[in-house]
Design a protein that fits this description.
With 361 residues, the protein is of the alpha/beta class. It has 14 helices and 14 strands. The longest helix has 25 residues. The radius of gyration is 23 Å and the shape is globular.
Length: 361
């Protein structure tokens, strides 16, 4: 019995020694993102999200995101941004004028995160339900003073080594005023070039340039966005250094411009199905940061009624254009906590660069 105090003392000292031992730098370090998937619901404000949730009878895959915040969306020359200035803020961290594609407010080219990722050996990709030369995807890869310069934007794709891009706009690569055949040049650069959905979605390696008709979900587009996004992830994930991928649900915006609530809802739910597939990958992978946001809200949508059990939604639009309201940002995966709060749209770029440690020399 005389030994009990000494045993207790020894155990206590051992506990204190173990519990007070400093963590190693490796143990202190939070999980690091190897990949980023940035998903942009063009024109997607909170009303568009809740309209989709209501029509889907009370739930969206988007609800699985672990952190959320809001971004300020103004352009350098206007309180209300367009997609070009909004996407350039995301891609390059610069406020710029409406219509600008990968250039700053003085029309000087600015390096995008996609280009930096490419230079550092990461795989890169773009997927959209619009033309791939449209404002949002273009702002990650091209540098032009106007979003209307679709042929010049297409030519900029040949100045990079992007691994995968899938969307519409084949005509800007083939039927060009300058007579250049950019599709042939892509093939010479080792791209598989295809306008067949089955061939595109069955591709699982190499470089891919996929061109598909631009049509709305209700026009039998089906699961194109989900399938092409999965294709891009499958290809890019083969790069051991990681990847950067931007996926755009382009036509939520178009439904807002048309003041067509059903169009908005259908595109929102289609985008959310793609979110679900991306989150399945991210959860299994464990090294992928998923960010979901919008460049701006479109239509000034107000929900005036609905039913979560039947999926009925009623709403009114206040404009056929964009609005200047804050839009949400959601995040999931390593580094997701850094996307909470209220901040400028340019901070999305800064936070992504930090997450992938692309700022380091």
């Amino acid at each position: 019995m005389k030994n009990i105090p000494s045993v207790v003392t020894y155990c206590l000292l051992l506990f204190l020694t173990v519990s007070c031992t400093p963590e190693t730098e490796e143990e202190k370090r939070p999980p690091q993102a190897k990949n980023i998937i940035l998903m942009i619901g063009d024109g997607m404000g909170t009303a568009q999200i809740y309209a989709g949730l209501t029509a889907n009878k009370g739930s969206l895959n988007l609800e699985q995101m672990t952190h959320s915040g809001f971004i300020k969306t103004s352009a350098s020359d206007d309180y209300v941004t367009d997609s070009a200035a909004g996407a350039t803020a995301f891609s390059a961290g610069h406020k710029t004028y409406n219509g600008a594609i990968g250039v700053d407010s003085t029309k000087n080219p600015v390096t995008t995160i996609l280009e930096t990722a490419e230079e550092r050996g990461l795989a890169t990709g773009l997927v959209a339900t619009s033309s791939i030369t449209h404002a949002t995807p273009a702002s990650f890869i091209a540098h032009q003073p106007s979003r209307d310069m679709a042929e010049a934007i297409a030519a900029d794709f040949l100045k990079t080594d992007i691994d995968v891009f899938i969307g519409g706009g084949e005509e800007y690569f083939s039927d060009r005023e300058d007579g250049e055949d950019l599709l042939r040049q892509l093939e010479e650069n080792d791209y598989r070039v295809s306008n067949d959905i089955e061939e595109i979605t069955s591709t699982n390696s190499g470089k891919l340039a996929g061109f598909l008709p631009v049509r709305r979900w209700s026009e039998d587009r089906g699961d194109q966005l989900m399938e092409t996004s999965q294709t891009a992830v499958n290809i890019l994930d083969q790069d051991e250094d990681g990847f950067f991928l931007m996926i755009e649900g382009s036509q939520i915006d178009w439904g807002g411009h048309d003041n067509d609530l059903q169009y908005v809802i259908q595109e929102m739910i289609d985008f959310d199905r793609t979110i679900g597939k991306v989150l399945e990958f991210a959860e299994e992978d464990g090294e992928t940061l998923v960010i979901i946001t919008a460049d701006h809200e479109t239509g000034g949508l107000t929900l005036t009624g609905g039913d979560l059990e039947t999926g009925e939604v009623e709403g009114e639009f206040s404009t056929g254009s964009h609005t200047g309201t804050l839009v949400p940002v959601f995040s999931y995966g390593p580094g997701a906590e850094h996307f909470s709060g209220i901040y400028e749209n340019t901070a999305i770029y800064d936070k992504m660069m930090n997450a992938l440690e692309l700022n380091a020399e």
